[in-house]
Amino acid sequence: MIRTWLPQSLVMSSLNRERADRAASRSGQVVGGLLMAFGWISFLRGAPGGLWLVFVGLFITVVAGTERQRAVIHTALRGIKVADAMSSPVTTGADWLTIRHFIDEVAVNSRHFAVPLLDFEGRPSGIVQIRKLARIPGARREALRVREVAIPLSQCAVAAPSDLLSEALDKLRPGTGMRILVVDGHHLVGIVTAKDISRLTQRHTLETGGPREPMSPGATP
Which DSSP symbol is given to 127? Predict the structure, then answer.
């Protein structure tokens, strides 16, 4: 009986938390919209402080929308392993190349906005953003190594193939992009990008018929 009750209690806790997250984000968007409307009306009536209410309302609306999107993504990715989402094989480049050689040999042939780097021993050492290479003056491209302008591995989101994707997403950091390097035994075996996340989220929406409130265990559909 205890073994039966524990899983059900965990499921109920998870479902209640998801409902609370969605309700809070919807409430935030409503409050933000009301603040923007009230602030705009106040401004039109001659109250300069109304503009501040508009900006505050806009901020609340954006944050609430972001939280709601995060909740939807985590629901769609529940139980999915990183290995099921990653793209493989991965286009990589040597981190010891000069920026000039890296652009000529790797970047111009890549279809991605960022390229993972490998060191002499074939281990991942970081990731370089193509747009950052484009901003480097031509005169410096012969002297700089690509690893000197790359995001080091210590600042990248790294996960193992067996990790849960929802937990791996929590490792993402601002400024590094929505990319997760998948490493197994010090070797890069895949990468998870925003396109992979979008594909899985869309598939979940198609399979479930769109966003809906989760049903309580035992409820009749």
Answer: E
